[in-house]
């Protein structure tokens, strides 16, 4: 793949829930080494976009390519094995299992157990909170700590691209900061991130590029800084 080519490309993608048309020709790109965020009002199609990329919601039309391979008709397990991991909105861990057991479950498709154990130790170095609470049940963690755990679980499959849906949902400001710091660390380790986030101001502050959706269509896109400074965006989504 050419160094300037997108890692992920969506072109005129349409998706529906039954007769309800949610995505109405959405196009966006994600490049290696970037955090790309999707912002917009409730009902704009942000979460549906991630689910369509991951194969949970089938696309009715359009094109989705990952590493220049068409993935629009692939199932989630196939997409996972290709190098895309997904952290959905809300909790998605095993609450009655320990931190370590959750991480081991995150690597469920891998057979190289010794390598997995070594990578868990490296994750502990990157995310010390997980190491400190190694034997703690996941369900006893705060919401932000569970979010960090779930992102670490996804990283054990060595994704080239991590999809994250509403990572700050329900978090207090302190934990929100920790979660966004973790997302930045994930980018720094070489994993591209496509993030949907209701807290537009914070999402834009850590992102490289942004797309704004309105009612299932592209409305605006550009560098995250330019979107953050756009008067129309500030009025509609940032309350400024």
Explain this structure.
- There is one protein chain.
- This protein is α/β, with parallel strands linked by helices and 240 residues long.
- The protein is 38% helix and 27% strand.
- The chain is built from 10 helices and 10 strands.
- The strands form 2 sheets. The protein has a 6-stranded mixed β-sheet, with helices on both faces.
- Helix 3 (99-106) runs parallel beside helix 6 (143-155) and helix 6 (143-155) packs parallel to helix 7 (173-188).
Task: Set down the secondary structure blueprint.
Layout: E1 8-17, E2 20-30, E3 35-40, H1 46-53, E4 59-66, E5 69-70, H2 76-82, E6 84-87, H3 99-106, H4 113-126, H5 128-132, H6 143-155, E7 161-165, H7 173-188, E8 192-196, H8 200-206, E9 209-214, E10 217-223, H9 224-229, H10 231-237
Helix pairs in contact: 3-6, 6-7
* Uncertain residue segments: none
What does the overall shape look like? globular
Individual helix count: 10
Number of strands: 10
SSE string: EEEHEEHEHHHHEHEHEEHH
What gap, in angstroms, lies between the N and C termini?
41 Å
- Helix fraction by DSSP (H/I, runs of at least 4): 25-40%
Outline the biggest β-sheet: 6 strands, mixed
Radius of gyration: 18 Å
Helix/sheet category: alpha/beta
- Strand ordering within the main sheet: 6-7-8-3-9-10
Write down the overall mean pLDDT: 93
Strand content: 25-35%
Structure summarized in a few sentences:
38% of the residues lie in helices and 27% in strands. By secondary structure, the chain is an alpha/beta fold. Strand 1 and strand 2 form a beta hairpin.
């Amino acid at each position: 793949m050419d160094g300037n080519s997108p890692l992920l490309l969506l072109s005129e993608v349409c998706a529906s829930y039954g007769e309800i048309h949610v995505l109405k020709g959405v196009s966006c790109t994600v490049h290696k080494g970037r955090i790309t965020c999707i912002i917009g009002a409730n009902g704009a199609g942000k979460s549906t976009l991630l689910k369509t990329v991951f194969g949970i919601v089938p696309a009715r039309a359009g094109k989705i390519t990952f590493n220049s391979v068409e993935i629009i008709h692939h199932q989630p397990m196939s997409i996972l094995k290709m190098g895309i991991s997904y952290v959905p909105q809300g909790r998605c861990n095993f609450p009655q299992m320990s931190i370590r057991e959750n991480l081991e479950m995150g690597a469920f498709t891998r057979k190289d157990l010794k390598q997995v154990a070594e990578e868990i130790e490296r994750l502990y170095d990157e995310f010390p909170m997980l190491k400190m609470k190694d034997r703690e049940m996941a369900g006893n963690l705060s919401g932000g700590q569970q979010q960090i755990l779930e992102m670490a679980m996804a990283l054990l499959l060595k994704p080239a691209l991590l999809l994250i849906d509403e990572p700050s949902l329900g978090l207090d400001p302190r934990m929100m900061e920790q979660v966004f710091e973790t997302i930045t660390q994930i980018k720094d380790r070489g994993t591209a991130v496509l993030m949907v986030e209701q807290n537009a101001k914070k999402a834009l502050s850590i992102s490289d590029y942004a797309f704004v959706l309105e009612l299932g269509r592209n409305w605006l896109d550009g560098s995250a800084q330019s979107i953050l400074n756009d008067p129309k965006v500030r009025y509609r989504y940032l309350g400024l």
